[in-house]
Amino acid sequence: MSHSSQTIRLGIIGAGFWSQYQIAGWKELSPVNIVAICDKDPLKAKAAAKKHGIPRYFTDAAQMMDELSPDVVDIITDVDSHALFVEMAAKRKIAAISQKPMGPDLHTATQMVKTCREANVPFFVHENFRFQEPIRQVKAVLDQGIIGKPFKARVSFCSNYPVFQNQPFLAQLEQFILTDIGSHILDIIRYLLGEAKSLYCQTHSINPGIKGEDVANVFLVMEKDVHCFVEMSYASILEKELFPQTLVEIEGSEGSLALEDGYILRVTTKSGTTRHKIDFHLYFWASAEHRVIHASIVETHRNILEHLLGKKTSEITGEDNLKTVELFFKCYDSAAKGTIISLYPHP
Ligand code: 89V
């Protein structure tokens, strides 16, 4: 599919909490025309169309695809419906973007990637954390070789933020923190440090009001021999609530770096330490508490758009994201069995 001189015609599936921000994010990018929105609830679909100036609304995604043949659909729905909509799009040769996590299990996610590969249809997962400006800047320091060869890392996302208020379905998930936040954090680790060769994971269920686990601690050994400790929690009552910050510390042969509270990037070498505060765009539609994530939505969309316009391969294709999906489902296997899981080498 080549759209080099065209506008990309986009259909939105889902008018829930995140949809409003993803629509706003798409509207920041000029060659995109949102042609319709679909939600099974007609009132929600109609209200979202009115709010965002979208010309058509539907309650049936197949009907939307058949009537309007969008170039791409952005599937912003609960995890259990992702495969259905991706398959619906692939059958019609429409490119698809799935919200994370890609699928409810590794087998389904693998099938989704296969379906799109066989239909020769571009498929992306809306994995936005790696596009956060602070994470991009950590990667730039690593790529410049300032701290030498990394050998140890610690990545932390620990909070007591009431995430269930905006997204009540999260409280009903049997597998919660590794699919919801692990999908982001383990993807950041792959982005910064490459693939893992083994992992060990333990989980806790602390909040009695939710079905799944809300704490996960993971120890990864990376193919490049970095030892990486990852802690994720929505049960952490800390002195300072850090949501939605991801903290990172990486030690290398020539120095160390840290992404600290307040988006401060510290770099230390034998010549000393520098610290600077990382700035990122504050969009008018972003909420104050999610602003780092909301800014990253635009960069996520830009990356997908460049792929659709034939400019470069996206970082977040389904093929790539399947490696992240494999990591968080293997974490569940490790926690259930209490054993270290070896991962296959990746090409
Ligand atoms: O992006 C997300 O996964 C969101 C949040 C960071 C709030 O958990 O659900």
Describe the 3D structure.
The chain is an alpha/beta fold and 347 residues long. The protein is 35% helix and 25% strand. It has eleven helices and 15 strands. The chain has helices at residues 19-27, 42-52, 61-68, 82-91, 106-119, 133-143, 163-166, 177-180, 182-193, 291-308, 318-337; strands at 8-13, 32-38, 56-58, 72-75, 95-99, 123-126, 150-158, 196-204, 215-222, 227-233, 247-252, 255-260, 264-269, 272-277, 341-342. Strands 14-13-12-11-7-10-9-8-15 form a nine-stranded mixed β-sheet. It has a six-stranded parallel β-sheet with strand order 3-2-1-4-5-6, sandwiched between helices. Strand 13 and strand 14 form a beta hairpin. The relative contact order is 0.15.
Question: What is the tally of beta strands?
Answer: 15
What structural class do the secondary elements suggest? alpha/beta
Percent of residues in β-strands: 25-35%
Number of helices: 11
pLDDT averaged over residues: 96
Ligand types: (2S)-2,3-dihydroxy-3-methylbutanoic acid
Computed Rg: 20 Å
> How are strands sequenced across the largest beta sheet?
14-13-12-11-7-10-9-8-15
Low-confidence stretches: none
The largest β sheet comes out as: 9 strands, mixed
Shape: globular
Order of helices and strands: EHEHEHEHEHEHEHHHEEEEEEEHHE
Distance between the termini: 26 Å
The helical percent reads: 25-40%
